[in-house]
Amino acid sequence: MTTEDRTPDAGEKPKAEEAKAQEAEAEEPKGERHQGERRMLPYSLIVGQEELRTALEIAYVSPGVGGVLATGQRGTAKTTTVRAFTTMAVSEFPVTLPIGATDDRVLGGWEIPELMHGKSTRAEGLLERAARSASRMLYVDEINLLDDYLVNIILDVASTGVLPLERDHHSEDLRNVEFTLVGTMNPDEGGLRPQLLDRFGLVATVESEATDEQRQRIVETVLRFEAEREAPASEFIAEALRRDGERKATLDTARERVATVRYDTDVVARCARLAQDFALAGHRGELVLMRAARALAAIEGAERVSRDHVRRVAKPALVHRRGRGDTGTFAAWTDQDDERVRAVLDDRTD
Question: What single DSSP character describes residue 165?
């Protein structure tokens, strides 16, 4: 992958500065440590969202799984959950790519003040900032609204850790640009090409809570948080932050030991059979299955990956790889899909 770039001339400066200022204005505080964690809903107070939370935790413990795509309709707290997660894990929001960001903003451009003095000094892009941030995460809201070529570049850098640039007859490969890509999309506003979907490690389907009780719990939780977040003596907030601390310790421990979690040949064989049964193209699916199952085992303190670990990560690892067309959307996971997974994992004929 090669990215062409060029040096803007002096006549382009006002336009470039204006665009940069607009992007900066649209951009929310990113990659910056928040002075008061109480401003953000604690991770442990998120109601529901189990699929997205599990996917984020797996990607944190085992970045090799690949990125996470959260798909769901507006207002389902996808962004809130991602920000609560990184605040819990590293006390800051993820680096966020604003809607309408230019190539220069994403890949890096030129320092405009330096250009005014005849010097070409490269300005760091968001991909590099994400790699240097504590969360090592790049968050892209509404990723399906980005140009495909830009999504492809971001996914390429996320998977290889290398950002090749070419500008002014000078080539350079920036190394160790490693980050986890987390994107969200509302399927009602369009999809992603299957080739791009396949490059996300896990897909989490986010839906509105289906019961009155859960909806009531969401409202009560949010209202109480808003009422007490500025109160230093709030036991409600203190208890939530204490649970966040415990979860962070669990995930950090899992991250340290995930490489030591063992697995049997039988479990690998079951992952391969699942990929075959779902007619997956390529071999990314079974690799993600194994890595995700291993990370889940590490989070739960298990010494060995079990078939049950594979079963529980099958949906987010396979739902977007089933080859149901080229519209950029994918069919919903069904009870029949669960049955196919169970049939492969429970088969005793071997």
Answer: E
- 76: phi then psi, degrees, rounded to nearest 5: -100, 15
CA 41 to chain centre: 19
CB atoms within 10 A of CB 111: 14
Q: Is the distance from CB of 222 to CB of 84 less than 8 angstroms? A: no
The confidence score (pLDDT) of residue 107 equals 85
- The yes-or-no answer on residue 255 being catalytic is no
| Residue 348 φ/ψ, nearest 5 degrees | -105, 15
The answer to whether 254 touches 297, Cβ cutoff 8 Å, is no
Of 289, 317, 290, give the one whose Cα is nearest residue 200: 317
Contacts 24+ apart (CB under 8 A), 12-18: 13/112, 13/115, 13/116, 16/104, 16/109, 16/112, 17/112
Tell me the CB-side half-sphere exposure of residue 224, using CA atoms within 13 A. Answer: 15
| pTM, 2 dp | 0.84
pLDDT in tens, 263-275: 999 999 999 999 9
Helix axes 50-61, 78-90, angle to 10 degrees: 40
Cβ atoms of 341 and 274 closer than 8 Å? yes
**Of 119-133, 176-190, 257-271, highest mean pLDDT:** 257-271
pLDDT at residue number 7: 37
Which runs of E-coded beta strand occur in the chain? 4-5, 68-71, 95-97, 109-110, 122-123, 137-140, 163-167, 170-174, 180-185, 202-205
- pLDDT computed for residue 151 by the predictor: 86
Residue 53 has pLDDT above 60, yes or no: yes
In the numeric block, which tokens belong to residue 14? Answer: 């006002």
pLDDT at 294 over 60: yes
Active-site residue among 105, 284, 311, 321?
284
